[in-house]
Input
Amino acid sequence: IKGAKESLIFGNDFYKLNRISLEFKQETTTRGILLGIGGFYENDKFPFTDSSSLRNDDVYELFLRLGFKFNNWLTVEAKYKYLDRDSNYDIQDYKQNVTLLYATMKL
Output
């Protein structure tokens, strides 16, 4: 994916991004177990309008997903994701560990 996104950073109206992602999903037909693994690499460029400096971020995300399909209309899933943002502006560096639990109902 290549594009421009609206920025929430003061002095910046947008940033450019390039992303490559990969995901593998598998559903067992007999038990209703859902498995998934994936991630992405993204490069973000923030051209500041008030100076000649350029912020450049590398973002990595990996995730694992495990779910159970109870029937045709109810699915419960748990997801763990790890995100690492590495910026040339040290104050913008961070790492995230996120665990999600959610249910999906279809009508």
Summary: The chain has no helices and six strands. The chain has a mean pLDDT of 85. The CA atoms of residues 27 and 34 lie 5 Å apart.
